[in-house]
Design brief:
heterodimer, A: alpha+beta, Glutaredoxin, B: Rossmann fold, Ubiquitin-like (UB roll), globular
Chain lengths: ~160, ~425
């Protein structure tokens, strides 16, 4: 299993594990690291993590499938997550989602053919004062209009 | 009187760095607590201040600390609940991002009062940038000996780690948070035992919301009487109210506990956007039962909101205007709770999904006679019948909307 993670990643995971009295407690932060490096979490990652953190592959799978931020499949270079909760809905979030659908030519859950963008919906992101809002990768954007979205997307590779 | 506990968090005073914080008198409360007070004296002061939890349940913080058995040899933990997942809530983001040392100082004082040496900040996964800021602030605190093996040269040790969640509403519930911190699915635990006795890794654990802990330095420095004087006798201090929806100035406002809901919306948040009329208000995060426009002459305190049939919750105020259909609000709420139910308890797992399916059918214009009554029946079947408060959180908004807006829902669902 040692070949699954590059040495740097492996030592960062081990450093995380040292923060807890049980290594398995580092599972969520470790999964974030793996996903940041590889783009998603594959079965071989689950097995390698189980070995490093002294837990079982099935316990890792449980966690990967429970939390919405963990992905078992690759996504586009940029992940666009549009909030559909109450405040954003009140402030025109549907219009934002429709604009993105039309502009990118994809439905929710799909990736553009060039692999640049994946579009999803998400529950409350905690930026309600700037509704309607969305998150692209880890950047929060608020006060959205169609023009503003076009500007944001243009700046991305 | 200008309450100023959160001036920096709200962008009205200085930056987030430890230099800025120290220049404004930061960590003076920690010095006072660790160098001049006994842990018991700190605990007593916080108890006298009637500091109620700012996360949702409103439980008195001092009482919670007091439940942890003193002086055992076993490890004890402090978990900071920075999950902030309740829809309509965004206040802790301001503290974490703009005044992280206020939180760290609160954590240090709490750890000293309870006699524990390890703290974890459980922060929602979507706040990645803010988690990094907090980690940078923690590194500064280690460097200046406000964290580490020998805090302020007193021999008191405290480690603080930032732990990111990964997108799960239920992990804001305190026992689900513990499970998640242990590297597991966020399945709430049966209580008792309560976390103060058996918590993280089986050890006595205190779990406090970010804003709750951020109030502690002020209480220690200026005293319980000062804090009580800001708010109400059984509910001290100020609160961060987050206002969102179609108002002129959505945002976070620090106001005394007991400020009227009408004043918050119409004075501080500037009232409705031009051409909009107030229709309803969700006063404390999505789970707080909805109030009609004519019900907002209310003092925003834990008790007054309970008397009004709602709850102060997280202080997240969602303002709803006359252009919004209540069926739409119900739909978003129903989808949210169905998505976030952890699946452990049958009434919540099935009930939230049945409710979602019926509301989706209503929204598609396919309402049938008896649907509205069925929604109320299903919600009542969840309420009080689950391990954790999420069952109630999912049921209460449905019951309140169905009860207060029955005819609107009936009309809307018959239109195809």
């Amino acid at each position: 299993m040692s070949g699954v993670f590059a040495d740097g990643l492996r030592s960062r995971i081990e450093a995380l594990a040292a923060r807890y009295p049980r290594k398995s407690a580092a599972l969520l932060p470790a999964l974030h690291l793996v996903q940041a490096e590889k783009g998603f979490i594959g079965p071989e990652d689950e097995e390698a993590l189980a070995g490093l953190l002294e837990t079982t592959p099935v316990a890792v799978r449980e966690v990967v499938t429970f939390y919405t931020m963990f992905r078992r499949r690759p996504v586009g270079r940029h992940l666009i997550q549009v909030c559909t909760n109450v405040t954003c809905a009140l402030m025109g979030g549907d219009r934002i989602l429709d604009h993105l659908r039309r502009k990118l030519g994809i439905e929710v859950g799909e990736t553009t053919p060039d692999g640049r963008f994946t579009l999803t919906t998400v529950e409350c992101l905690g930026t309600c004062e700037a509704a309607p809002g969305l998150m692209i990768d880890f950047d929060h954007h608020g006060g959205l209009t169609e023009t503003r979205i076009d500007e944001i997307l243009e700046r991305l590779d | 009187m200008e309450p100023a506990t959160f001036a920096r968090a709200l962008g009205r005073a200085g930056g987030w760095s430890i230099e800025d914080y120290l220049a404004a008198g930061g960590y003076r409360a920690a010095r006072k607590a660790l160098l001049e007070m006994t842990p018991a004296a700190v605990l007593d002061e916080v108890k006298k201040a009637s500091l109620r939890g700012r996360g949702g349940a409103g439980f008195p913080a001092g009482l919670k600390w007091g439940f942890v058995p003193p002086g055992t040899d076993r490890p004890k933990y402090l978990c900071v609940n920075a999950d902030e997942g309740e829809p309509g809530t965004f206040k802790d983001r301001y503290i974490l991002g703009h005044d992280p040392h206020l939180l760290i100082e609160g954590v240090l004082i709490a750890a000293y009062a309870v006699g524990l040496h390890r703290a974890y900040v459980y922060i929602r996964g979507e706040y990645e940038m803010i988690a990094r800021r907090l980690e940078a602030a923690a590194a500064e605190a280690y460097e200046r000996q406000f964290l580490g093996p020998d805090v302020l040269g007193t021999g008191f040790a405290l480690d603080l780690w930032v732990h990111r969640g990964a997108g799960s509403y239920i992990c804001g519930e305190e026992t689900a948070l513990l499970e998640s911190l242990e590297g597991k699915r966020g399945h709430p635990r049966l209580k008792p035992p309560f976390p103060a006795a058996v918590g993280l890794f089986g050890a006595p654990t205190v779990i406090n919301n970010v804003e709750t802990l951020a109030n502690v330095p002020g209480i220690v420095l200026r005293g319980a009487a000062w804090f009580l004087g800001l708010g109400l006798p059984a509910d001290g201090g100020t609160r961060l109210f987050g206002v969102s929806g179609p108002v002129l100035r959505p945002g976070v406002y620090e106001l005394p506990v007991g400020t009227s809901l009408r004043e918050i919306i119409f004075t501080h948040a500037g009232g409705m956007l031009p051409g909009r009329k107030l229709k309803a208000v969700i006063p404390g995060g999505l789970s707080a039962p909805i109030l009609r426009a004519e019900e907002i002459d209310l003092a925003m305190s834990c008790e007054a909101l309970v008397c009004a049939g709602s709850m102060l919750g997280s202080g997240g105020i969602i303002v709803i205007d006359d252009r919004t259909s209540m069926l739409e609000v119900l739909l978003r709420a129903a989808r949210f709770y169905a998505h976030e139910s952890c699946g452990q308890c049958t009434p919540c797992r099935l009930g939230t999904n049945w409710i979602r399916k019926i509301v989706e059918r209503l929204a598609a214009g396919g309402g049938r006679p008896g649907d509205i009554e069925e929604l109320a029946r299903l919600a009542s079947g969840i309420k009080g019948r689950t391990l954790c408060p999420m069952g109630d959180a999912a049921a209460m908004p449905v019951l309140a909307i169905v009860e207060k807006f029955t005819s609107e829902l009936e009309e809307a669902s018959c239109r195809s």
